[in-house]
Structures are given as structure tokens and as C-alpha cells.
Input
Amino acid sequence: MKVVIAGAGSVGAFIAEDLQLAGHEVLVIEQDIDEVKKLRDHIPCQFVVADACEVSTLQSAGLADADVVVAATGDDEDNLVISLLAKQEFMVPRVVARVNNPKNHWLFNKTWGVDVSVSTPHLLSSLVEEAVSVGSLVRLLSFEKSGARLVEVTLADDSPAINVEIAKLGLPKTCSIVAIIRRENVIVPRGDTLLQDGDEVVALVTEDSEVELKGILVGAGALKR
Output
């Protein structure tokens, strides 16, 4: 499969390396030559140093032969332009676009040539909606290579973490709270963020720290279950 990725930031670079290792033909378009120089040493894929919003760039990159285009820049306007050009000018079968600002998510649709849009806050929200019950730890996702897990806990009214700042929870070093969903709003957690009754807490943990986190957010009785 031929994949063209626009944007060689942290997201684009990770996707490029992952797909390259999986055996796909990967081409990355990035206009920052210094960024390209850094990546060429450890990602053995083809790079094009140019503006991916230009039709001439996409043509020289062989978009007409691409199976998938990934618009992964850090700018939503650029990602929309790239998606639209990929679909309308080059008829790419599948266009995946990164949404940086969740408020722009409504724009990323078929009208703009987007087949699949990826917004981290919206993805977390939809995963959390599948949680089975309040006061239970739900495992959302496992990363086989690292052993890390993405888990969710909806705080019950008797949770020992309610009205406690995140920095004072005593979280283990191998545990990180990555998002809080509160009344349909996604909150990026900080050390002074107070947890509230009903908060849906999403955390990245290891096997060992998962048990500790459950005790901290659910309560001591959770360790016996």
C-alpha cells in the first residue's frame, strides 16, 4: 500500500515509521528541511521537501497512485486543503485527516474530501461513553509492545479522589492522567485540577500502576475486588 503523509511533526513521523515498519510504501511531505534532515536518519522512507498545500507538490509526490493520504500537519486549515486536493484533484481512495482543534471537527467531512477524521478529545469522549458503570475501572486500549494501557474511571460520589488536586493524589510514576471528561467537556488535566463527582478520568498506566490507580480513584475496597 502506498501512503502519502503530509506533515512530519511528532504525529506524522510516528505514523510514517510505524507504516514503514509494517512494510508499506511511505512518502512524507514536509516543508521544514531541518525536520526532514533529522528524520531521514531513522525513518527509511521517501521525503519531499515542499508545501503539501500546492497541487504541483502533490503531483510530483505521485498522489494519483496513492492508496491513502494522511493530512497530519499541526494546522487544521492546511489539513483541510490537503484533504480536498487529494480527493478532488487526485481521486485518492482514502483520506485521513488530523483535527488539531476539536471545535473544527465539524468541518472535517466528505465535503472537504475527508473519509476519516481523527480528533483526540473526541476519540477519548467516544471511548469513555462505552464505559460500563460508575466507580469501576474500564480498560479501553492496550499497547502490546510497551505493556501500557489506557483506562477510564467514572468517579462515584464516595471516591476518595473527589475534591483532591491531581498533584496531591499520590499517583505512581508510571501513571499519567491524560484527560478528564466533565459534563461532555474535555479537560486537559493540570496539577491543580480538582476532581469532581461524576468526572470520567482517562489515564495511561502500566500493569502495576493500574492497580494503584484503581485504589486511588475508586477506593481501598477496589483492591480486594
Residues 125-224 form a domain with the Alpha-Beta Plaits fold (CATH 3.30.70.1450).
